Amino acid sequence: MPRGRAADRGIGVFIRRSGYLRKWLILGVTIGVIAGLGAVVFYLALDYSGRFLLGYLGGYDIPKPAGDGGDPGSPGFERPWAIPLIACGGALVSAWLVARFAPEAEGHGTDSAIEAVHTDPRAIRARAIVVKTITSALTIGSGGSAGREGPAAQISAGFGSILARRLDLSYEDGRVAVSLGIGAGIGSIFGAPLGGAVLAASIVYREDFDYRALIPGFITSATAYAVFGSILGFEPLFGYVAADFRFDHPLDLGWFVVLGVVAAGVGWLYARVFYGTVALTAKLPGGTVIKPALGGLAVGLLGLAIPQILASGYGWAQKAAATDTLMAIPLWIVLLLPFAKILATSLSIGTGGSGGIFGPGVVIGAFVGAAVWRLGELAGAPGLPDGPAVFVVVGMVACFGSVAHAPLAVMIMVAEMTGSFSVVPCAMVAVGVAYLLITRTDVSIYRAQRRNRETADAERRARAEDS
């Protein structure tokens, strides 16, 4: 037996024989360290690719949020003709790498990790981790509308899968290890460790909560955040956009009931358009390389009219939270942007590109909140807050928290990302209304989620009997 495998087996025996505390302390810290380092690598790859592709070749700098430096971005396109070509080229190379080396790296990544939790926690290949890192950096760096959480989740979930495979962990321990990787990867790259820990326990189900992943998730997510922050800083992604907001007018909650209703409708539309694009793309002629390239070209052309849809869009969400920068954006763009971002994300990822769908969902929700505030301000509505920040933050929570069926996790994450825990009462009302509306449908942005633990257990028993 090779020495490496013998060592793995020896460590695996030690961990399997360990008690609960020692086992998950070892595994949690290990997964957390790799999740943090993986998030750093992907963040830097994405930053460099964006600076080179859109910045150097395209002559256009994307606005960045406070946690990424706060660069206001370019006032316009220096070489507008280059933007569609760069977006198309980045999508083309990304799709070719996926098709050639790791087809499972196609799409947003989080669904693949959730599916591994439910079917085979040992199934994620190391090759998929590398390919996902490169292809997502190319897709987003060239202007594709996608988020950075999907690749981060697949990287750290993949490492959890490798541990399950190499250390011969039990099926249940392997499931928890992959879940921890999902939460730690997303939590670290968004600077939201508590939200990441709760996400690890909630994202795999639509109507349930995996308590076995919660406490180990605290260890894993905190470790990943410490590693990521010690290298790239601990500033919240969006700074402290609503830090001065104080909830002291209970009647104002009526605004957030309205926002919750609107956010639920937009979140529902996001999921339906995205997966409608996936289904339509599968029926269209053309290969798995050409379709994402054409999607990238379409996004580049759309970006010339509405530049806010290019790349992640976090910097534009930051601008939407401040009155002066939001008012500088034409009203028609503010109103249209949630739908344009849905279309751009569907064209970038739904056609077979590589990148996350959490980030775009946050930006979509931010502009839903901004649009509601702008319309209220225009109408001179009573009780409207002086600035849009609280609407933007709550819109992020309500829109994506509801359609992801993870309202608590997303609410905590957004509060951490914005340094705005004072908005929690308003967010609770909005996301509660939005989630109750979404649960009346069968729509979720993560199709690999199972309804609850009983449904997942029955599925596993049926699969075991068939085999």
UniProtKB/TrEMBL annotation:
Gene3D superfamilies for this protein: Clc chloride channel (1.10.3080.10)
Pfam families according to UniProt: Voltage_CLC (PF00654)
GO cellular component: chloride channel complex
Membrane association type: Multi-pass membrane protein
Keyword vocabulary terms for this entry: Chloride, Chloride channel, Ion channel, Ion transport, Membrane, Transmembrane, Transmembrane helix, Transport
Principal location listed in the UniProt entry: membrane
GO MF annotation, one: chloride channel activity
Transmembrane segments: 24-46, 176-205, 217-241, 253-273, 293-317, 329-351, 357-376, 388-414, 420-438
CDD domains hit by this protein: Voltage_gated_ClC
SUPFAM superfamilies to which the protein is assigned, alphabetical: Clc chloride channel
Locations listed in the record: Membrane
InterPro entries recorded: Cl-channel_core, ClC, ClC-type_chloride_channel
Protein's name according to its UniProt entry: Chloride channel protein
